Amino acid sequence: MSTRDAIQLFLLCVEFFFIIYMIGYSSFLFLSVTVGSSELYASRRRNQLKNELGNDYYVPVSILVPAHNEGVTIEATVRSLLALDYKLYEIIVVDDGSTDDTSEVLREAFQMWPIDRPIQRRIPCQREEEVYETRAFKVPITLVRKKNGGKADALNMGINVSNYPYFLCIDADSVLQYDSLEKIVHPVLEDPTVVAVGGAVRPCNGAEIENGRVVRYRMPKKLLPCMQVLEYDRSFLASRILFDKFNGNIIISGAFGLFQKSVVIAAGGYDNTTMGEDMELVVKLHVFCRENGRPYRIRYVTDAVCWTQVPEKLGDLVKQRRRWHIGLFQSMMRYRSILANPKYGAVSFVSYFYFLLYELFSPYIEVFGVLTTLLAFAVDLINVPFMVLFFAIYVVYSAILSLTAFFARVHTVDLKLYPADVLKAVGLCALEVSCLRFVLAWVRMSALIGYRKKKNDWGRIERQRINIK
Prior knowledge:
Layout: H1 3-48, E1 61-67, H2 74-82, E2 89-96, H3 102-109, E3 113-114, E4 128-134, E5 141-146, H4 151-161, E6 166-170, E7 174-176, H5 180-184, H6 186-190, E8 194-203, E9 208-210, E10 213-216, H7 223-237, H8 239-244, E11 256-260, H9 261-267, H10 277-291, E12 297-308, H11 314-334, H12 346-360, H13 362-378, H14 384-412, H15 419-445
Parallel strand pairs: 1-2, 1-6, 2-5, 8-12
Antiparallel strand pairs: 3-4, 4-5, 6-11, 7-12, 8-11, 9-10
Helix pairs in contact: 1-14, 7-14, 7-15, 10-11, 11-12, 13-15, 14-15
């Protein structure tokens, strides 16, 4: 066999693999976006008919806000939490060794005073340095300052400080919609076996928020956060709603998640040796409950919304996605015994397999596909018109699904879109799929290089003030 024949055989095998790979991914994405859109409209219909639990029932919730150098956003985040349409909760901010004025901003804005409060360590975490508290507002606000130990360690401290049986974690650069806490506890009221609930996360860049309500919604001015808006809506509308149908969600965003405290403590709390503490905890809960024969549900609520700041600079986005992919790798490898294990049912054969093939391995597969295309072009074994047509179909198909998710999100939460924003979304959806996706694929592919040296590094990302009143 000549070298040319060998290359041709290799490319045929690669072509067959990519056909199967793309058919699988496109079919899954179509199914998940269809199911997700249907669920959004069904949820909106239920809300219009007032087919919800009454507001007389409240699950006591401790809201944990881990913070590291968040002086720019922390006050706005806490004020948004005070505006929640809910009665029984507390706010706990854990300053994880900030070198800026995070603690000073909180103490001055909310008239907080030092207290002498013993903290029982039900799960390991570094010791507290100072504890402040105020009861001058709607609910108690506690500030704990400690040495830097990473986000997971800060969350464990928050769990130890908390007084209530459920805790909700929210990032310090995020804002909860006024009714989000009420909506995210619904599954707990409906089913006592629910141990964790995830909510929807949407970019707030460009939005104006007043008393927990979006009073003016605009697409961000910069292109990069605009493309992330489309990406977030597609992601949260797609797999998470579909996986919720069979208790298959293995990730709850660290920006917005509710957990049953006793189960989390029994499972060992957050792991401070991983960069993906949010996914690691959820997979750990699957394993803990199944290994101990405990009936459980991990739910996702699509109309409980958290508005978060997304990176506006490419360098910051690279840091974020690098950290996410390292966390995914650590969680998937640590719990690799789930794969092809009948004990875990659909979690094993659907959820874990999907995240393994289309999340963890996808950047390597995509970059490999680009390289083989270049090889085929170099040896004149590629049909250029067909490749251009194939890529165009892929871009159009993905763009349509992105726009479907975006407009479904906007319509079902009654946000008003300006014509310029519609044009911006339509114009950028193809760019997000054809350019940003491949840039981030390269970032994720190289993420594991030297990651052990910075496993507890939060990753400094430049913040902007949240447009909140």
